[in-house]
């Protein structure tokens, strides 16, 4: 089976590309510029700006993927608020182009969304009422709505606060930031008034494989099993790595002058994935241990 993964140079896209190739899938890895990682045998890399419709069309027409997994996004909420037109172009318009091309060539389409499409009162179930608190969340919701209306047999995956191992050429995630700061004996302030269900990236990859192999469709929350705050996560990282947890100060989010509003009580409920996909995500502690093995 051939699977096209967009955003292959990004954190999740790169993990997903390597994971699917390791499971025997042929992967067409699509991202901007050069590949930022060593390409295994089953991966073909295509440089592509997704807002360029003819470039996307040519790649799909030539490679004829069975699935298009659309992971790429302008994924930083602050940048989305500061550049709303760019955000709409990359998060909504590019999804529409890609979804139309998937429909044209008969490829199944899986869209990566986010818990940011919801407001407060998480953890949320798949069908809960949406209510994004910032422009990034609005853009991801607009793209979801288009996918739900126009893509037959669509899949939408919603992860939360993704962490995982940092491979060569890859950006770090929150846990590596904590490790780096504490290893240099630097004190850090971490918010303790925002609840999340942090997601180990390899659990997402496993869930995606199940969705494909079990011929599933619809919306799936692929998140971690625990509701915890970033402060709790940082303390767990410190304890697992035998670093000095006393350097971590628990703070309220209002001390950071962030332009973007974020939910205090977010996170996603994973009952559907547990039941339908037999999804068994790692606890945060297990996930962090694996990342630093
Ligand atoms: N990270 C999280 O905690 C989190 C939580 C919930 C949901 N999500 C969702 O999960 C997905 C992956 O997130 P991530 O944090 O792994 O992303 P990321 O590391 O920011 O990577 C995104 C990738 O998409 C590429 N990209 C963006 N727009 C593009 C375009 N128009 N054409 C070609 N490439 C484009 C970027 O290219 P450049 O490298 O050139 O910028 C980057 O390589 C996103 O859809 C995000 O909304 C993420």
**CATH A-level architecture of the largest domain:** 3-Layer(aba) Sandwich
Bound molecules: NADP nicotinamide-adenine-dinucleotide phosphate
**Major sheet:** 7 strands, parallel
- CATH topology name of the largest domain: Rossmann fold
Widest beta sheet: strand line-up: 3-2-1-4-5-6-10
Distance between the amino and carboxyl termini:
31 Å
Radius of gyration: 19 Å
- The CATH C-level name of the largest domain is Alpha Beta
Q: Name the CATH homologous superfamily of the largest domain.
A: NAD(P)-binding Rossmann-like Domain
Helix and strand run: EHEEHEHHEHEEHEEHEHEHH
**What is the beta-strand fraction?**
15-25%
Could you tell me the mean pLDDT?
A: 97
Which spans of ≥5 residues are poorly predicted at pLDDT below 50?
Answer: none
**Class by SSE composition:** alpha/beta
Tally the helices. Answer: 10
Extended strand count: 11
Measured as a percent range, the helix fraction is 25-40%
Question: How many distinct folded domains?
Answer: 2
Morphology call: globular
């Amino acid at each position: 089976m051939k699977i096209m993964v967009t955003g292959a140079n990004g954190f999740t896209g790169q993990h997903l590309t390597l994971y699917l190739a390791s499971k025997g899938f042929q992967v067409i890895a699509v991202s901007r510029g050069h590949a930022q990682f060593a390409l295994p045998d089953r991966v073909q890399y295509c440089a592509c700006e997704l807002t360029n419709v003819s470039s996307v069309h040519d790649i799909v027409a030539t490679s004829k993927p069975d699935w298009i997994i659309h992971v790429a996004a302008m994924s930083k909420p602050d940048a989305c608020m500061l550049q709303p037109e760019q955000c709409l172009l990359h998060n909504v318009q590019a999804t529409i182009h890609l979804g139309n091309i998937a429909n044209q060539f008969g490829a199944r389409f899986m869209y990566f969304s986010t818990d940011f499409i919801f407001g407060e009162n998480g953890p949320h179930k798949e069908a809960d009422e949406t209510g994004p608190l910032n422009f990034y969340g609005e853009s991801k919701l607009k793209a979801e709505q288009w996918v739900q209306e126009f893509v037959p047999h669509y899949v939408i995956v919603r992860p939360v606060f993704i962490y995982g191992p940092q491979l060569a050429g890859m950006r770090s995630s929150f846990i590596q930031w904590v490790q780096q700061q504490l290893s240099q004996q630097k004190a850090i302030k971490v918010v303790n008034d925002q609840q999340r269900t942090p997601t180990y990236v390899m659990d997402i990859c496993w869930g995606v494989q199940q969705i494909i192999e079990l011929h599933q469709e619809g919306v799936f929350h692929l998140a971690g099993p625990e509701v915890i705050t970033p402060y709790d996560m940082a303390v767990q990282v410190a304890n697992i790595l035998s670093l000095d947890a006393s350097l971590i100060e628990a703070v309220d989010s209002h001390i950071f002058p962030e332009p973007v509003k974020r939910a205090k009580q977010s996170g996603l409920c994973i009952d559907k994935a547990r039941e339908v996909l037999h999804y068994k995500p790692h606890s945060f502690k297990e996930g962090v241990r694996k990342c630093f093995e």
